What we know:
Elements: H1 19-23, H2 30-37, H3 39-47, E1 58-64, E2 67-72, E3 75-76, H4 78-91, E4 95-100, E5 106-110, H5 111-127, E6 135-139, H6 144-156, E7 159-162, H7 169-179, E8 183-187, E9 189-192, E10 195-198, H8 200-209, E11 215-219, E12 232-234, H9 235-238, E13 251-252, E14 256-261, E15 271-275, H10 277-290, E16 299-302, H11 309-321, E17 325-329, H12 340-348, E18 352-355, H13 357-366, H14 369-372, E19 381-384, H15 391-401, E20 408-410, E21 445-448, E22 460-465, E23 475-476, H16 480-488, E24 505-513, E25 519-524, E26 529-531, E27 534-536, H17 538-546, E28 551-561, E29 565-574, H18 582-600, E30 608-611, H19 625-632, H20 647-658
Parallel strand pairs: 4-17, 6-7, 6-8, 8-11, 11-12, 16-17, 16-18, 18-19, 19-20, 29-30
Antiparallel strand pairs: 1-2, 3-13, 4-5, 9-10, 14-15, 15-23, 21-22, 22-24, 24-25, 26-27, 28-29
Bound molecules: adenosine-5'-triphosphate (ATP) and magnesium ion (MG).
The site of adenosine-5'-triphosphate has 27 residues, from β24 and β25.
Amino acid sequence: MSETLENLYSETRQFPPPADLAANANVKAEAYEEAASDRLAFWARQAERLTWAKPWNQVLDWSNPPFAKWFVGGELNIAYNCVDRHVEAGLGDKVAIHWEGEPGDTRAVTYAELLKSVSQAANTLTELGVAAGDRVMIYLPMIPEAAVAMLACARIGATHSVVFGGFSVDALATRIEDAAAKVVITADGGYRRGKPSALKPTVDEAVARTGSIEHVLVVRRTGQDVAWTDKDKWWHETVEQADASHVAQPFDSEHPLFILYTSGTTGKPKGILHTTGGYLTQTSYTHHAVFDLKPETDVYWCTADIGWVTGHSYIVYGPLSNGATQVMYEGTPDTPDRGRFWQIVDKYKVSILYTAPTLIRTMMKWGDDIPAKYDLSSLRVLGSVGEPINPEAWMWYREHVGRERAPIVDTWWQTETGAIMISPLPGVTSAKPGSAMTPLPGISADVVDDQAQSVPDGGGGFLVLREPWPSMLRTIWGDDQRFLDTYWSRFGAGSDSSSSDEWIYFAGDGAKKDEDGSLWLLGRVDDVMLVSGHNISTTEVESALVSHPSVAEAAVVGATDPTTGQAIVAFTIPRGNVDTSGDAGEELIKDLRNHVAKTLGPIAKPRQIMLVPELPKTRSGKIMRRLLRDVAENRSLGDVTTLQDSAVMDLISSGMQSGK
Ligand code: ATP
Ligand code: MG
């Protein structure tokens, strides 16, 4: 981006919160003023949501930027905050997790049962020689043991690193090596798409390839045959037999809690390090504020995988610290049929649903008639995370899932930020379809040009964070230099040319401010296209394509072009009922090119549109544009280790050839 992003799209629809929700909201408009008048005092008040074994003596130590320390001198135990204190408050019989296995088996885990399991797992890990500061890998399906394993590590001060259950040997082995982990917690397998899918063989190979693993704890989930080594121990023969009492020791507020590797959408994954007090403060507060959680009555469901940061912050730490009752689902959304999500909402009377744009667009593709078959009247707040949500997908979510009632919170954040940073508040904000709206109270986000100057309303540029926040990453594990280079060297005090003493965090995302100052995320800065001297965002062109009634999903990249510098190439998935054979396909492509030109202006008209059956996505459902760019420019593919399904790339490449 040489200058700033063009601002092509304008949205006029806006939806105020329902009156009853606004009147009873956990957080009201005053919170913004309170936080603005004294940011650190605001966060100090939010930290009081937690139970501290020893109070802190300083809210923020920023004397060695960009290495932050929050709630300095304070001590607490995260597992105590997420489990024990709810049991002590008399809520032991309350369901913490309504678990739904893919084959239809279920478990209801109460807070008392969770305390028992976490204590037993903590005792077992200690017996296996795991001590505070050691690293433990977690490679599990979406079963309650995943949350138990994370909390047990936190309880004894071990640093966990969760790896998606779908990742390959390579991905797991590099993470084990990078973290120098001592123990892996895994399972024989998990259920996906109606059948058991093995996990243990991947672990066996990764352990054999690396040198640091001493023990492997194996949960029996599917009952499939597993090879056994002398490092292996069954969970049911150790954890479930262990002493159920365990006294949690407090740890320093800056004690390392977990390392989590980013999705790898833009390059080689980074091992993001999060610590204790600030992380739990912000995940707990944002879960309370953004979802308006009423722990006595709400049933909350986040559909993310535990291997993604959303699973960490909004399945485990945020909800459990708030004493929520939640649903956890093991499997895929189309097993046994495409109504599974809605059937789960209906069955458990889910009132808060947090999911991703990729799933919403998939549901759109499958058709309106599917959610229409279920009773979704329990839903009162809907959330979105992971990618910009296209305005038409937002409208579909509102109409067909929220039944024009439930407010939508489009939450922008990253593995690095640890918790939600930019989002509407459901009882305060009049939300616009496709906009993440405004920074939360206590957060200072801005959009700047390449000179780090704040752009005026109506302008576009780089999304930055101007002040440290409690759940910010502390570094990249083992690589302070990459931490400085990636996030802090672009603008402000960390950059070579700057005379400023303000440290500015560079998020890597493009964004714009509309005429009211609301924020619109425009995709990765790496993905911005420079077409005939104009900086055009992939997100805006994709949203224009998705607003066409025949399109379910679209991914757009800039490919080198001899005349325009870069040209827009679009990969488009038609909706289920659309005929794309022969001439009909050609007609649709012509129609789509014109539709984009009409919506955004002729400069945004794609040079080429490919109709494809699928798009390359990460396991967390994000479109991997860098791979499409490799295809569009006939290069060999970059790092594909975090790709969900590698066969998709062959499908697309062959389609690309025939389309020329
Ligand atoms: P890597 O950093 O390795 O490329 P990644 O950025 O995909 O991987 P995550 O931390 O999981 O890994 O994703 C954070 C990114 O997801 C954000 O930087 C942003 O691009 C995108 N994102 C998340 N939520 C939203 C949202 N509500 N609106 C727009 N973009 C979002
Ligand atoms: Mg990133």
